Amino acid sequence: MLGEIILIKLDVIKKMTTEEKYKYMLILLEGQLSSEKDIYANISNASAIIYAIFDKLNWSGFYFVKSEELVLGPFQGLPACNRIAIGKGVCGTAVATKKIQRIDNVHDFPGHIACDSASNSEIVIPIIKDDVVYGVLDIDSYDFNTFTELEEKYLIKFVDKLNKYIDWSQL
User: Fold this and answer.
1) Is 58 exposed, middle or buried (0-12, 13-18, 19+ CB in 10 A)?
2) How far is C-alpha 155 from the chain's CA centre?
3) Are 129 and 162 in contact (CB under 8 A)?
4) Which residues is 128 bridged to in the sheet?
Protein backbone atom coordinates (compact mmCIF):
# COMPACT_ATOMS: atom_id res chain seq x y z
CA MET A 1 0.00 0.00 0.00
CA LEU A 2 2.71 2.50 0.98
CA GLY A 3 4.64 1.65 -2.20
CA GLU A 4 1.55 2.38 -4.30
CA ILE A 5 1.04 5.73 -2.56
CA ILE A 6 4.67 6.71 -3.20
CA LEU A 7 4.39 5.75 -6.88
CA ILE A 8 1.23 7.83 -7.25
CA LYS A 9 2.92 10.78 -5.53
CA LEU A 10 6.03 10.46 -7.70
CA ASP A 11 3.86 10.35 -10.83
CA VAL A 12 2.86 13.97 -10.15
CA ILE A 13 6.45 15.15 -10.60
CA LYS A 14 6.17 14.73 -14.36
CA LYS A 15 4.15 17.96 -14.48
CA MET A 16 6.45 19.93 -12.16
CA THR A 17 9.19 22.39 -13.02
CA THR A 18 12.72 21.39 -12.06
CA GLU A 19 12.71 23.56 -8.94
CA GLU A 20 9.27 22.28 -7.90
CA LYS A 21 10.67 18.74 -8.15
CA TYR A 22 13.56 19.61 -5.89
CA LYS A 23 11.27 21.22 -3.32
CA TYR A 24 9.11 18.10 -3.44
CA MET A 25 12.22 15.97 -2.97
CA LEU A 26 12.88 17.76 0.33
CA ILE A 27 9.29 17.15 1.43
CA LEU A 28 9.62 13.44 0.64
CA LEU A 29 12.89 13.27 2.55
CA GLU A 30 11.43 15.08 5.58
CA GLY A 31 8.53 12.61 5.61
CA GLN A 32 10.92 9.67 5.50
CA LEU A 33 13.31 10.98 8.15
CA SER A 34 10.62 12.15 10.56
CA SER A 35 8.84 8.80 10.56
CA GLU A 36 11.80 6.39 10.69
CA LYS A 37 14.71 6.19 13.12
CA ASP A 38 16.86 3.51 11.46
CA ILE A 39 19.91 5.08 9.81
CA TYR A 40 20.22 2.49 7.04
CA ALA A 41 16.53 2.65 6.14
CA ASN A 42 16.77 6.44 5.94
CA ILE A 43 19.91 6.67 3.83
CA SER A 44 18.69 3.88 1.56
CA ASN A 45 15.47 5.75 0.91
CA ALA A 46 17.35 9.04 0.58
CA SER A 47 19.34 7.67 -2.36
CA ALA A 48 16.10 6.29 -3.88
CA ILE A 49 14.36 9.66 -3.53
CA ILE A 50 17.14 11.42 -5.42
CA TYR A 51 17.17 8.74 -8.11
CA ALA A 52 13.42 9.09 -8.56
CA ILE A 53 13.35 12.90 -8.65
CA PHE A 54 16.39 13.81 -10.74
CA ASP A 55 16.50 13.42 -14.50
CA LYS A 56 19.47 11.95 -16.39
CA LEU A 57 21.01 10.08 -13.47
CA ASN A 58 22.80 6.77 -13.66
CA TRP A 59 23.85 6.64 -9.98
CA SER A 60 23.01 8.20 -6.62
CA GLY A 61 24.29 7.09 -3.28
CA PHE A 62 26.60 7.40 -0.34
CA TYR A 63 30.16 6.66 0.66
CA PHE A 64 31.15 6.75 4.33
CA VAL A 65 34.51 7.36 5.98
CA LYS A 66 35.77 4.18 7.64
CA SER A 67 39.39 3.49 8.59
CA GLU A 68 40.75 6.46 6.62
CA GLU A 69 38.97 5.57 3.36
CA LEU A 70 35.52 5.86 1.83
CA VAL A 71 33.39 2.72 1.84
CA LEU A 72 30.32 2.24 -0.33
CA GLY A 73 26.95 2.77 1.35
CA PRO A 74 23.35 2.54 0.12
CA PHE A 75 22.86 3.56 -3.52
CA GLN A 76 20.71 3.33 -6.64
CA GLY A 77 22.27 2.32 -9.95
CA LEU A 78 24.83 -0.18 -11.20
CA PRO A 79 27.39 -1.72 -8.85
CA ALA A 80 30.06 0.78 -7.81
CA CYS A 81 33.57 0.95 -6.39
CA ASN A 82 33.62 -0.53 -2.91
CA ARG A 83 36.40 1.65 -1.55
CA ILE A 84 37.88 5.02 -2.48
CA ALA A 85 40.99 6.50 -0.91
CA ILE A 86 40.52 9.90 0.70
CA GLY A 87 42.00 12.48 -1.64
CA LYS A 88 41.45 10.30 -4.73
CA GLY A 89 38.78 10.80 -7.37
CA VAL A 90 35.89 13.22 -7.04
CA CYS A 91 34.52 11.67 -3.83
CA GLY A 92 37.89 11.44 -2.12
CA THR A 93 38.67 15.03 -3.10
CA ALA A 94 35.37 16.23 -1.61
CA VAL A 95 36.31 14.61 1.71
CA ALA A 96 39.91 15.84 1.70
CA THR A 97 38.94 19.43 0.89
CA LYS A 98 35.58 19.45 2.71
CA LYS A 99 34.20 21.13 -0.42
CA ILE A 100 31.45 20.34 -2.87
CA GLN A 101 32.71 18.98 -6.16
CA ARG A 102 30.51 19.86 -9.16
CA ILE A 103 32.17 18.39 -12.23
CA ASP A 104 30.76 19.11 -15.69
CA ASN A 105 33.01 16.55 -17.42
CA VAL A 106 34.47 13.86 -15.19
CA HIS A 107 36.91 12.85 -17.92
CA ASP A 108 38.69 16.18 -17.39
CA PHE A 109 38.99 15.66 -13.61
CA PRO A 110 42.55 14.62 -12.69
CA GLY A 111 42.48 11.18 -11.09
CA HIS A 112 38.77 10.54 -11.79
CA ILE A 113 37.76 7.03 -10.77
CA ALA A 114 35.41 5.55 -13.35
CA CYS A 115 33.20 3.16 -11.39
CA ASP A 116 30.70 3.37 -14.27
CA SER A 117 32.07 4.33 -17.70
CA ALA A 118 28.64 5.78 -18.57
CA SER A 119 29.14 8.64 -16.07
CA ASN A 120 30.01 11.97 -17.67
CA SER A 121 29.23 14.52 -14.94
CA GLU A 122 29.11 14.29 -11.18
CA ILE A 123 28.28 16.22 -8.04
CA VAL A 124 29.55 15.24 -4.61
CA ILE A 125 28.32 16.86 -1.40
CA PRO A 126 30.45 16.15 1.68
CA ILE A 127 28.46 15.09 4.74
CA ILE A 128 29.87 17.29 7.50
CA LYS A 129 28.35 17.57 10.96
CA ASP A 130 29.99 19.35 13.88
CA ASP A 131 33.07 19.83 11.65
CA VAL A 132 33.50 16.04 11.19
CA VAL A 133 33.34 14.59 7.66
CA TYR A 134 31.31 11.39 7.80
CA GLY A 135 31.10 10.72 4.08
CA VAL A 136 29.64 12.01 0.84
CA LEU A 137 26.47 12.07 -1.17
CA ASP A 138 27.59 11.17 -4.70
CA ILE A 139 25.44 11.64 -7.78
CA ASP A 140 26.44 10.76 -11.36
CA SER A 141 24.85 11.55 -14.70
CA TYR A 142 25.30 10.03 -18.13
CA ASP A 143 25.05 13.56 -19.61
CA PHE A 144 27.71 16.24 -19.50
CA ASN A 145 27.01 19.49 -17.60
CA THR A 146 24.04 18.04 -15.71
CA PHE A 147 24.54 19.74 -12.36
CA THR A 148 24.09 23.49 -11.95
CA GLU A 149 23.91 25.89 -9.03
CA LEU A 150 20.23 24.92 -8.67
CA GLU A 151 21.02 21.23 -8.09
CA GLU A 152 23.85 22.18 -5.76
CA LYS A 153 21.55 24.44 -3.73
CA TYR A 154 18.94 21.72 -3.21
CA LEU A 155 21.45 18.95 -2.57
CA ILE A 156 23.01 21.07 0.17
CA LYS A 157 19.53 21.39 1.70
CA PHE A 158 19.11 17.62 1.28
CA VAL A 159 22.29 16.89 3.24
CA ASP A 160 21.38 19.52 5.84
CA LYS A 161 18.08 17.70 6.38
CA LEU A 162 19.91 14.37 6.72
CA ASN A 163 22.20 15.97 9.29
CA LYS A 164 19.20 17.20 11.26
CA TYR A 165 17.89 13.66 11.76
CA ILE A 166 20.87 11.32 11.50
CA ASP A 167 23.58 10.69 14.05
CA TRP A 168 26.32 9.66 11.61
CA SER A 169 28.58 8.48 14.43
CA GLN A 170 26.22 5.49 14.80
CA LEU A 171 27.22 4.06 11.42
Assistant:
1) middle
2) 7
3) no
4) 133
Among 112, 1, 129, CA closest to 64: 129
Distances (CA, A) of 51 to 38, 104, 134, 139: 20, 19, 21, 9
In this structure, CATH architecture of domain 2-170? 2-Layer Sandwich (3.30)
Whether 69 and 85 have beta carbons less than 8 Å apart is answered as yes
Q: What is the pLDDT of residues 7-26, one digit of tens each?
A: 555 678 888 999 999 999 99
Chain-centroid distance of CA 110 in Å reads 21
Is this model's pTM higher than 0.90 or not? yes
Residues 156, 164 contacting (CB under 8 angstroms): no
Amino acid identity, position 155: L
pLDDT tens, residue by residue, 136-168: 999 999 999 999 999 999 999 999 999 999 999
Crossing angle of the two packed helices 39-53 and 18-35, in degrees rounded to 10: 170
Give Cα 128 to chain centroid, integer Å. Answer: 13
Q: Residue ranges of the domains in the chain? A: 2-170
Q: How far apart are CA 58 and CA 121, in angstroms?
A: 10
